[in-house]
Write a structure and sequence with these properties.
alpha/beta, seven-stranded parallel β-sheet
Length: 424
């Protein structure tokens, strides 16, 4: 029966190729159109392995986006330390994660990075996955969080590749979606040799989907994301130079959020003209559009580069809005801000990890839709280390009130950093 389900899934994948192609062409490319197209649809890697690469045991690590990539960064380095002959093929799916790893490669001269090849993850077509596997011949596949792709897992299992799922997470939405195809999902899950879940809730959900082996429960690996000292230093220096009363940061905003945020900011700015708001959209293809919307407020707007012009904020007409149009600089933006709103949480978009903001001891606000980080957000609220809001207008009102009370402001910030430290 599983073979029938898998065959049906493969046929369905082929049927949706035109839609996938359309989405692909609209997204920003990591390596150019041709290379991304060959890699994603045909599984042809750009960095073909040489004889030296094949001498050691090949580990394949797949982390979709920037957060997952940063979360397993320490694990990958540990693999290299414990197995000095290891070779690692590290695949990602987003431009932010790709840019982060390229930055690491370019800024590190360590010999260990010579043993790592970074590639884009092929789409889950049978042929693309098999071509990719045949190119690198990995012994182990390490998946991060919820990357349960049928063709990928079935193809790896077929050729004897051991499969591990680390930092396993199943949101309520994902659990319900997988539940509709439980008869198909269960055999795929059971091809995974070892599953390590984030929480007991995640463990229970994986079990309810039919995973039969034991599941380990460890803390969320995102607690281990290291502080990037260069970014923190840069952000702190900028904050010292900015002659602004409060710096507000709307981090990782989604479609449908910015226009409402900007409307509320116009009202706030009337009586608080010495404040600054930074908006960092989650997806780079929206940077320009958000900038145009910000210009419609008739307030002065600049891009991120303006922050590094030392004399800029000494001018009387310094900007009141900055659009963060760079990737992988979250800790820099956080370090120069006072009050942080977690994007995608006021509108129902699942939220974003508040751990970077908590780690740096920021005043954290988020909405009621932190579905993807429900346990972390609940713990922060329980420990009075974050504030939940219902609207963007409420963010500005409660944030202003909080900032005006130095004792309450410091307590919230200290509680947030203490929360992260207690989980490390």
């Amino acid at each position: 029966m599983f073979r029938f389900y898998l065959f049906f899934y493969q046929c369905l994948s082929i049927f949706f190729i035109p839609v996938i192609l359309l989405i692909f062409f609209f997204k920003k490319k990591c390596r150019g159109l041709k290379k991304d197209l060959l890699g994603r649809f045909l599984g042809i890697p750009v960095n073909l392995p040489n004889e030296h690469f094949q001498k050691g045991k090949v580990y394949w690590v797949h982390s979709v986006s920037l957060g997952e990539t940063q979360a397993v960064y320490s694990m990958v380095k540990e693999i290299e330390k414990r197995d000095y002959t290891s070779r690692i093929i590290w695949t990602v799916s987003t431009k932010t994660a790709w840019s982060f790893l390229q930055c690491q490669i370019n800024s590190n001269s360590d010999e260990e990075w010579n043993r790592i090849v970074v590639e884009l993850m092929p789409y889950d077509f049978k042929w693309s996955v098999e071509i990719f596997i045949d190119s690198f011949k990995p012994s182990v596949l390490i998946l991060v969080e919820t990357e349960v792709w049928p063709n990928l897992i079935a193809s790896c299992s077929k050729v004897g590749i051991k499969i591990f799922l680390v930092n396993g997470r199943l949101s309520k939405k994902s659990f319900m979606r997988y539940g509709f195809v439980r008869n198909f999902c269960s055999p795929v899950l059971n091809m995974i040799h070892l599953l390590v879940a984030q929480t007991e809730v995640d463990k229970k959900r994986f079990k309810e989907l039919g995973y039969k082996k034991d599941i380990l429960v460890l803390k969320n690996m995102k607690f281990d994301i290291p502080i990037v000292k260069e970014q923190v230093r840069a952000g702190s220096t900028i904050r010292e130079n900015i002659k602004k009363h409060i710096v507000w940061l709307a981090l990782s905003t989604r479609e449908g959020e910015e226009r409402e945020l900007l409307q509320c900011w116009q009202d706030h700015h009337k009586n608080n003209s010495n404040d600054l708001m930074i908006i960092v959209p989650r997806h780079p293809e929206r940077f320009e559009q958000v900038y145009k919307w910000a210009r419609e407020t008739m307030l002065k707007v600049e891009y991120r580069s303006y922050l590094f012009e030392k004399s800029s904020f000494l001018l009387k007409d310094s900007p009141s809005i900055i659009i963060g149009n760079t990737l992988g600089e979250v800790q820099m933006y956080l370090s120069l801000s006072d009050i942080v709103l977690i994007g995608g949480s006021v509108k129902n978009s699942g939220g974003q990890s508040p751990l970077d903001a908590a780690r740096l001891g920021k005043a954290i606000f988020f909405g009621h839709y932190m579905n993807n980080f429900s346990e972390i957000s609940e713990q922060l609220l329980l420990q009075r280390s974050a504030i939940q809001i219902g609207t963007y207008k409420e963010w500005f009102f409660r944030g202003q009130t909080l900032f005006n009370s130095e004792k309450d402001f410091r307590q919230l910030c200290t509680g947030a950093s203490r929360f992260v430290n207690s989980n490390m």
